[in-house]
Amino acid sequence: MERALDFWFDFSSPYSYIASEWVGALAARHGRRVRWHAILLGVTFQAAELKSPVSHPLKREYSLRDFPRSARCEGLPYCMPAVFPQPTQNAARIFWWLHDTRGSEAAEAWAHAGLRAVFTRGITLSEPQALRALAQAEGLDADACERVWNDPQWKARLKQANDEAIAAGVFGAPFFVVDGEPFWGNDRKPQIERWLASGPF
Amino acid sequence: MERALDFWFDFSSPYSYIASEWVGALAARHGRRVRWHAILLGVTFQAAELKSPVSHPLKREYSLRDFPRSARCEGLPYCMPAVFPQPTQNAARIFWWLHDTRGSEAAEAWAHAGLRAVFTRGITLSEPQALRALAQAEGLDADACERVWNDPQWKARLKQANDEAIAAGVFGAPFFVVDGEPFWGNDRKPQIERWLASGPF
Q: In this predicted complex, what is the ipTM?
């Protein structure tokens, strides 16, 4: 079986969106698969006593310029969502429901759909109608999805994912662990590629 | 005259040390010169309501692992200084004194000497004896340097540099501005190189 690398993301994270578009191909080129983990950045920020980059004077203006520039560097479309950052627990609960009931490929397809909805069409996933419409467009049952995001079982599943992320040292997103080595940020792509190509350095 | 790019650094910043070792050659390859600016990260952190990465739970452990790894990626020696972060106002005042009285090349040589002292030999620049010894090793008059770092004129000069950095949007280090475009972090090297090679993207 192919060895996996772990990839944590939040549906509201611009750099997670960018990384989500390269992580699969990069891993595959080196014979790896990717284990995707939807988490809530707000929870890891709290654990690490951090705030969103756009909550800081000076860093806010820079970040709003760097998000689209970093997307352009990867040749990706990008738009700044109307609501940013936005609460993403409902989309993340659907991710874990798909993951646990239909498998990792279904969850990964949902991750792509959600991240692209936010960062190429500016959609607000915390609006129930928008999330239902996205689910339906992805071939899911919107009523079932709404039951999932209100269900204590899937709330607990997301909480478990957040707890596991913090236990693994995750404080931001995207975050990667490859053979036990942690890498934080879309900009660690060259280091991850080097590690995958030639091992520890 | 060659167009310049601006480069802000703090003598106590690991990523500034790494960037200081590539910025000159990178700029030169593209027909640019570098304007070096010694600043105090503590001042820009305060303006941006930020703290050192090592002040945050989880991020601290990651950063202590990422500093040497990022240095290895550039083929650079690295050691974690005994005192980190360390106050660097005295070294920075000497930088501006050299800059204003002997020119930018003398200041740049001092920047390299200070950054390498901290990150390849673990020296504490806030210890007067260590800083005097470094000045002497660099061919400077240690007594003159000590007078400089206690002199209100050079204290004011560093304060001016910090104020100018904040006015330019600098909130961390290394920080670069190329043709008006801001880049933050050692990991923005590929974007800076792309900009220098082929212009805005």
A: 0.95
B161 min Cα distance to partner chain A (Å): 17
Which residue is associated with the tokens 């920080």? Answer: B175
Q: Which residues of B touch A49 (CB under 8 A)?
A: 56-57
pTM for the complete prediction?
A: 0.97
- Can you tell me the distance from the alpha carbon of A16 to that of A116, in angstroms, rounded to the nearest whole number? 11
Among partner residues B50, B58, B73, which is closest to A48 by beta-carbon distance?
A: B58
Q: Which residues of A touch B172 (CB under 8 A)?
A: 59
CB proximity list for A68: less than 8 A, separation 6 or greater = A78, A80
Residue-wise pLDDT for A100-148, tens only, equals 999 999 999 999 999 999 999 999 999 999 999 999 999 999 999 999 9
Check A57 against B73: CB less than 8 A apart: no
Alpha-helix runs per DSSP H in chain B: 14-20, 23-29, 41-48, 59-73, 89-102, 104-121, 128-137, 142-149, 152-167, 189-198
Q: Which domains does chain B have, with CATH numbers?
A: 4-198 (3.40.30.10)
